[in-house]
Design goal:
500 residues; Aldehyde Dehydrogenase, Chain A, domain 2; 2 domains; seven-stranded mixed β-sheet; six-stranded mixed β-sheet; 37% helix; 20% strand; globular; binds ligand TXE
Length: 500
């Protein structure tokens, strides 16, 4: 693979200024596909974090943003969306080089990110409270919906710009200010987006971005007494730590965590469509996807034939250089992540599952690439059926009845999403009701719309993102009770002698 790649150097955005870390420390990112340095970023410490939080606090408590007319906030959000769209090619290149994902896929994600900013801009003008005219002639009740305040956002590396765009524009739309900590291996597009936000007229301090380690600045951000809410996407383990840290001031917490999502294929389904979606669902983004369709549950009567076709199709998936527009599966993000995948593959072998395809590292001159992998004969109790592998590994199980399928689907601690493939309406609706997960796709997989809530049941998360549900997430409600006319005294008897 010969790609001319140059390293880009970035700074952090704190209070409207582009700055290095206070102690000058930096860190680098090496492209996981090419083994070449692609970015240098400030390694922020607690001093930098405190400055960022103080700036966001000031911008919220004293700044113009929370009370700016929605129409003006909307214009700024739309300008950011326009810039993201205009620079989609370059942003996609940054994202592909840092994360290892195919550049063509990265470009689609950048455009989807712009769409999220555009959608969120409409909420600037559609965030409102309520009134109660039913409380008696002496009382008028108002419910004010107010921004929650300073929001800390911690994001992962698998969809860098897309995931921050699931949070930030919605928080900004309702008048919050933010401190963002992107994943240490993929901060580039978040910093570029912050530059676009500044250019679009976002006031200083409303958005602050600090780059560095989760342990060094992520935990202190979650614990910070001046932060009102934390919105986190990442692993379930770190999600638990975020909750623990957030207890310091009982801040509001919203979490998007892992998944072990089943695709359930019934014998009556459009099997060609299901086949395509099963292969796409598990290998998309190298399987490094919270919504990855990492479990296939296939009805026994069609199992042998369908599984054989999945294996045949998976063999043809183009794995390779993320910068090649034909590539569908790029590099695994880190050696650590690769180690986790291989360890789980070994556990699958050891627990007696049948390895039908792949299972190992590909032999390449540079980078870290994993063979598309399929295990059949998987039991729901095996680790590869229960744990999030976050790699291109499919665990195949079979079922007899819809009730069996629902039981197996619900047999993990996760509950993020599921795919149901059937032409029967009763089966489709019955399964949609029976599966405990935040998203059910019927005869499709991995679609997303900003209008529809996104989030997890069980250990897949807490709260929902998107749409009007984001407004709920990033706002507080305040009851204002307005008394009209003379008020009844607490202790003075009324003229009628009523001393209630
Ligand atoms: O995630 P982490 P990692 C899962 C997936 C993957 C595993 C590990 O199974 O194999 O997590 O990936 C920040 N306090 N998902 O280690 O650590 C970190 O800097 C506060 C699923 O990369 O959860 C980064 O910004 N913050 C997931 C963010 O948390 C901390 C996406 C996510 O990193 C922290 C990613 C701490 N103590 C991984 N430690 C999904 N739901 O899509 C780290 N961070």
């Amino acid at each position: 693979m010969t790609v001319a790649i140059t390293a880009r150097t970035y700074q952090n955005l704190i209070d409207g200024e582009w700055v290095d870390a206070a102690d000058g420390a930096t860190f680098e990112r090496v492209s996981p596909a090419h083994d070449v340095v692609v970015g240098r970023y400030p390694s922020a410490g607690v001093v930098d974090l405190d400055r960022a939080v103080a700036a966001a606090r000031r911008a919220f408590d004293e700044g113009t943003w929370p009370m700016m007319p929605g129409v003006e906030r909307a214009r700024i959000l739309n300008r950011i969306a326009e810039r993201i769209r205009a620079e989609a090619d370059d942003l996609a290149a940054v994202e592909a080089l840092e994360s290892g994902k195919p550049v063509s896929q990265a470009r689609d994600e950048i455009l989807s990110s712009a769409d999220l900013w555009e959608y969120a801009s409409t909420l600037c003008r559609h965030t409102y409270g309520d009134t109660y005219n039913t409380l008696g002639s002496a009382m008028f009740g108002m419910v004010l919906r107010e921004p929650v305040g300073v929001v800390g956002m911690i994001t992962p590396w698998n969809f860098p710009l897309l995931i921050i765009s699931q949070k930030l524009p919605f928080a900004l739309a309702v008048g919050c200010t933010a401190v963002v900590k992107p994943a240490e291996i993929t901060p580039g597009t978040t910093l570029r987006m912050a530059q676009m936000a500044q250019d679009a007229g976002l006031p200083a301090g409303v958005l602050n971005v600090v780059t560095g380690s989760g342990r060094v600045i992520g935990t202190p951000l979650a614990a910070h007494p001046d932060v009102d809410m934390i919105s986190f996407t990442g692993s379930t383990d770190v999600g638990r730590r975020v909750i623990e840290a957030s207890k310091s001031n009982l801040k509001k917490v919203e979490l998007e965590l892992g998944g072990k999502n089943p695709q359930i294929v019934f014998a009556d389904a459009d099997l060609e469509a299901a086949l395509d979606a099963v292969v796409y669902g598990v290998y998309f983004n190298m399987g490094e996807c919270c919504n990855s369709g990492s479990r296939l549950l296939v009805q026994e009567s069609i199992a042998d034939e369908f599984i054989a076709k999945v294996v045949e199709r998976a063999r043809t998936v183009p794995v390779g250089d993320p910068m090649d527009p034909r590539t569908k599966v790029g590099a695994i993000a880190t050696d650590e992540q690769f180690g986790k995948i291989l360890e789980l593959v070994d556990s699958g072998r050891a627990e007696g599952a049948d390895l039908l395809l792949g299972g190992g590292r590909m032999d390449t001159d540079a980078g870290r690439f994993m063979e598309p992998t399929i295990f059949a004969g998987v039991e729901p109790t095996m680790r590869i059926a229960r744990e999030e592998i976050f790699g291109p590994v499919l665990s195949v199980m079979t079922f007899k009845t819809a009730a069996d399928a629902a039981r197996i689907a619900n047999s993990t601690t996760f509950g993020l999403s599921a795919g149901v493939w059937t032409k029967d309406l009763d089966t489709a609706i019955g399964m949609s009701r029976a599966i405990r997960a935040g998203t059910i796709w019927v005869n499709t997989f991995l679609e997303g719309y900003p209008e529809l809530p996104f989030g997890g049941y069980k250990e897949s998360g807490l709260g929902r993102e998107f749409g009007r549900f984001s407004i709920d997430a990033f706002t507080e409600l305040k009851s204002v009770q307005m008394h009209l006319g003379p008020r009844t005294s607490w202790w003075m008897p009324r003229s009628g002698g009523d001393a209630r």
